[in-house]
């Protein structure tokens, strides 16, 4: 049995799909792949995403151990996000899938 965000799955692939499904999830993860990013910069990297949608997805990733949230004691407070080890491993899987798709389409 596998669980993600409170939902149980019998199939690990179904769980994987739920982790990455959504308009912005893969883009958010890939934007964090190069290292820690402050919220405002992350939002600028993803044109068209609202602060609400970005926040919701980051909270899901944080709750499930894919992203680390680091609040800096500044005025106003700034929040920096980075991938955890689990998130880094997911990036490697996503890059592998991208490579497979490139090969499938002969690119």
From TrEMBL:
DNA-binding is among the record's keywords: yes
Location of the HTH hxlR-type domain: 11-107
Domain of life the protein comes from: Bacteria
Keyword set, alphabetical order: DNA-binding, Transcription, Transcription regulation
PROSITE patterns, per the entry: HTH_HXLR
Record protein name field: Helix-turn-helix domain-containing protein
The organism of origin for this protein: Megasphaera intestinihominis
């Amino acid at each position: 049995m596998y669980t993600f965000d409170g939902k149980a799955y019998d199939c690990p692939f179904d769980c994987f799909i739920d982790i990455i499904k959504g308009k912005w999830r893969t883009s958010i993860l890939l934007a964090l792949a190069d290292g820690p990013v402050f919220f405002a910069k992350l939002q600028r990297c993803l044109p068209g995403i609202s602060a609400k949608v970005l926040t919701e997805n980051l909270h899901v990733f944080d709750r499930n151990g894919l992203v680390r949230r680091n609040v800096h004691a500044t005025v106003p407070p700034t929040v920096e996000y980075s991938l955890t080890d689990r998130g880094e491993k997911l990036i490697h899987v996503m890059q592998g899938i991208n490579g497979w798709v490139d090969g499938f389409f002969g690119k």
